[in-house]
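thread from #wetlab-drylab

HS: before we spend reagent money on co-crystallization trials with S-adenosylmethionine, can we at least see a predicted complex? here's what I'd submit
DV: go for it
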Amino acid sequence: MDTIDPMDYVNELAPANAQERARQAFISAARRHIMVDLSEDLSQEYASLAAPQWLEEHGRPPADSHEVRRAMLQRPLFNAFSSLRYNAQEMVWDSVMDQIERNLDGLNTTARRLRSKQCGSLTLDADLPIPRDVSAMDIHLMPGCWHEEHTPDDTAQGALFELGSNVFGGGLKFARRGSVAYSIAHYLLDIFPDFRPRRILDLGASIGTNTLPYAELFPDAEVYALDVAAPQLRHGHARATAAGLPVHFVQQNAEATDFEDGSFDLVVSSYFFHELSVKSTQRVLRECHRLLAPGGLTVHMELPDAGQVDPYYNFYLDWDAYYNNEPHYAAFRRQDPTDLLRTAGFDAERLLITRIPNYSASDPAEFAAIVRGEKATPAHGNGASWCLFGAWR
Ligand SMILES: C[S@@+](CC[C@H](N)C(=O)[O-])C[C@H]1O[C@@H](n2cnc3c(N)ncnc32)[C@H](O)[C@@H]1O
């Protein structure tokens, strides 16, 4: 088999029919309209109507995200925005499910066949307890969440995440999947050219979308993708193998892995911590500290913490906590990354907290100029830039 771009894995092996393609394109365009055009209207509505009205009633502007929310709940536009965004989120998953169900036997069989190739590995643990953070609800309204299994050797939830992500981001700047990892890897190569990690671990990797770019850009490294959810890992291993990228997919809990102390030079994650409780966040960061070899780096892409942004953007980012089954989203953002890293044992002098542009949405020369500090980083939002927090060991 020729190699397959991981982003196109399901569509190559189990193509959508014309109706499904049309439905998926419609949802991507609707999401673009909601997340770009309506979201811009919403911020104007706040500036021109909701904030002045609050000022008139209280003699001061809204002080925090909760007050902005109280002001915005009065605005019909916010309620329309929320309804549309909520329904579009459900339709993202609905728009790809028939395609997966129709082709599931073939996808599972191909994943099994690819396992016999000598390319990376897949190590599952059927006895691993699924943490409440994952099992309690369908995170971001994805039916079955990360971990549910319907048939033996099931890859359905992994395929659902792959195809759903394509539809979800199809109209936005992060449409190039894996752009977080491409951005972090290029940032490291540009700014720390002597840092050549030999062992890399991605925590909460799901299907490895943001793991594979490390295998591509650091081809001499041994790369691990860790997650609790077996269907994500089965599907992830299949698409990595189909792309010719040797990655070791392991089913473990990031709070307490079985790797030895100091066994990695680079420990990364993307979109992971906001799905963890405050307690789990602390345990995972302590595990990062334990796993890093001297001179190693841990770096995580996450939402901006509440201290970095104004009350309106805090309110806007908290939307997912209220309407998108993201129960830890808001509490995660109320933690200070500096405190978190210091509490986990990292040296306050060796922290790495920054925002970098999306490599996939910028010209490489411009990307390099921005990360060198010669140009401003694009504002956060819709994949224009990524907030990073981490530390050197
Ligand atoms: C939002 S997804 C991460 C997406 C992925 N990193 C990416 O960039 O595409 C969060 C993942 O974390 C996993 N997860 C949640 N809690 C975990 C834990 N304690 N240990 C390992 N994985 C966990 C979930 O199963 C899920 O696959």
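DV: DSSP finds 15 helices and eight strands in the chain.
HS: ok that's useful, forwarding to the group
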